[in-house]
Amino acid sequence: MLTETDRAAHLQTTLGSAELRQDFPILDQEIRGNPLIYLDNAATTQKPRSVLKAIRDYYENDNSNVHRGIHALSQRATEAYEGARERAAAFINASRSEEIVFTRGTTEGINLVAQSWGRVNLKPGDKILLTEMEHHSNIVPWQLLAEQIGVELVYLPITGEDGMLDLNRLDEFLSRDVKVFAMTHISNTLGTINPVAWLCQRARRQGIVTVVDAAQSAGHSPLDVQAIGCDFLAFSGHKMCAPTGIGVLYGRKDLLEAMPPYQGGGEMILSVDFHKTTFKRPPLKFEAGTPNIAGAIGLKAAMDYIDTLGREAIFEHDCDLGRYAYQQFSQLDGIRLYGPVQERAGLLSFLLTDVHAHDLVTATDQKGLALRGGHHCNQPLMRKLGIESTARVSGYFYNTRKEIDQAVEIVNAVQRFFSG
Amino acid sequence: MFDELSDLYQEVILDHSRSPRNFHKMEGANHTAKGHNPLCGDEITLYLLMDENDVIQDVSFEGAGCAISKASASLLTSALKGKSKQEVKELFDKVHAMVTNGETDSEEMGKLAVFAGVHKFPARVKCAILPWHAVIAAMEGEKQEVTTE
Fold this sequence. Notes:
- The complex is a heterodimer.
- Chain A is built from 15 helices and 17 strands.
- Chain A is of the alpha/beta class.
- Chain A is globular and about 75 Å long.
- Chain B has a single domain, classed as Sufe protein. Chain: A (Alpha-Beta Complex), CATH 3.90.1010.10.
- Chain B has helices at residues 3-8, 11-18, 67-80, 85-101, 106-109, 125-140, and strands at residues 31-37, 42-50, 56-64, 146-147.
- In chain B, strands 3-2-1-4 form a 4-stranded mixed sheet, covered by helices on one side.
């Protein structure tokens, strides 16, 4: 028997190992004669064989529609789909699987909250509190709502280039008019890890409903909705080893019960008359139409895979990559790094004095290094920082410190190319 | 180390991106348009002074962008002085064909031919063509900002 410490140590050495990378066939390829160095995981992560196999097995053996069929395949598909819901509930420690709504991803989850909860619970003059580091997906749905019903958006500021929320000003923003506070757990541009449990606790004290955007944290760190104490939490499967087009919205039972449907259609009704329809209870009430069954099954396999590695260990590994990247990249001349120095997630945004982010990413791609360059769906944040775009390195548990070293070397070579 | 890259970033492009020509706001411009690339947030503004016969007397630009869009704007300003609206439109079509499929008559295109390499980098075609969209919009007097989308 391994002790807990031994086990953790074993996992630590497993993460990033050649053995583990064999689970990800896509990583084993060359781009223009150079081994692929995939450091764009904040955009999307790669998928392990077990996830690909689960999807394939489903289509080869059990494919059918869910919830309606009497035949064997439909029963199997329904069991697998609902099994994925139970798995997702356990994954984020929700107290019941009825609190898990399957969505297309984080974006749809937040849109659902804004439209379904927001439209009936907010009134003109109310305020929605966001932060200055939100992704467009946690800004635009609220702007649409604001236009529809006349509410106002307010933003908790960040402190500067180190990209921390200005927590000293929280009280001033948690005013009486704020009815909902939507915040990101981990910033996709800055790498900041926000104290969401603390923020939700402060908001809750004033009766403010809280929404957590967990897109960048769900696959990288332990996640416990009861410990966080949030009312809603949304994340995407594809940023945590699952396929695209599947995500989860967690909603507190009493809130979901009181919300009107988001979309109408099949699967979500009890009975339909020409003029009147009665709806199922949550979560099915919010899942109109045939859902992404294979996606949910893939998501379950991804959660199983991630938990085999251990999310504590993944968090350690990814944060180590982030800190290491900060340290190594900071040694380049003419580079500006964004986000916190120490307490950071496994991603790093930077800007070179002499090379535009787009030129940099085109150039690194020549060497097989996949980075992201652009505004990262964070335009308001970019404007606040006084820049148009950054380049971003984002790692996952299959990446290594050696790949960070190689990335630094390639970026340095690009600098030399452009400085002539 | 970067052989392919030198096809894209030719010396002329690097030179114009480092020291762009006609890179200033033009007081007294009678046509102007903004070009915006939503992909990266880059924005350039084109200024034109056109005479009563729709011939470009002066052209300048300002804004931020990558090496490709900056060099493209810079070389565009150098190429367009003295050209009529119709000639600019014809040139636009040729530039567009060149950056998307690499076809070019280098004699006719002059310095603009350095952008032929862009077609091998499909993700960067928008960067090269952005200033050209802006100049067309400016000539047409469109008020709206043009985007690469």
